[in-house]
Amino acid sequence: MTLEQAPPGVTDTEEELTSEKLEAEGLTFTPEMTLSERAEELEEHMMKRMSQVRIGKSVLFTSGDLDPTKPVPPPADPSLHVLMGDDPRIPQMPKAPTLQDFFKHRFSPSQAHLLQSTKLALKNGHDEKIVLACLLHDIGVVGFIRSDHGYWGAQLVEPYVDEEVSWAIRMHQALRFFPDDSVGYEYPEMYIRLMGADYKVEPYIEEDYKRARDHKWYMTSRLITLNDLYSFDPNAVVHIDEFEDIIGRNFKQPKEGLGFDGSPTAHMWRTIIWPTKYL
Predict the structure, then answer these.
(1) Using N-to-C axis directions, what is the helix angle for 218-229 and 163-175, rounded to 10°?
(2) Does CATH place domain 99-252 in 1.10.3210.10?
């Protein structure tokens, strides 16, 4: 039995690790194997491949779980080469990845919130700048760094979107904590549950709110928060491909692929592509 008959989703990740290469490495399926048995066989094979390299995690990835000022445990086998490319435990990205590829192969399932927010913005009749801002406003959370995610997300997309869009993404970090009665935005009850009724924002957040309040693009960012608040529905199914045309018109996708176009943030996209690359 060939690897084309592997369990669905196992070999369909645009990976250079082709079925022919896996077969050459000795991975085979017998005709009587069930889908579950084939999946287990493939998983065991991938773990064996991983045992041939040493993976080191960035300090940021482990801080909190580990004290970053303390020595890390030594590697089990220091003679192994370190991982300097694709991690076979996660889907490999295409050679010239698009924004949609990151949604499909790198962003977490919590991207459903982004997709629902975008759908809501469309339903509410907002222009495409607002819709795109809603789609991208939390990509820091779903694919990169949660802390200060509005600032990270804005920086990540800045070379590829209108300046108004990146500004709105950056400032939603602060605006979401402050109500605006003029448009019916209230402080989210979810924040009270998550952070407590006595939580106070840091001074830099309050200062950014004050600056944003008088800015010409204030309402663009505020509309992110308005469409953000009511877009958590665990039963809703929205797919990134529904917004292909809007992305095509409003996101400057580089022909070389995100991460390989030499932009000021290309290194950030590469970090998402290769999160466990040693150096």
Answers:
(1) 60
(2) yes
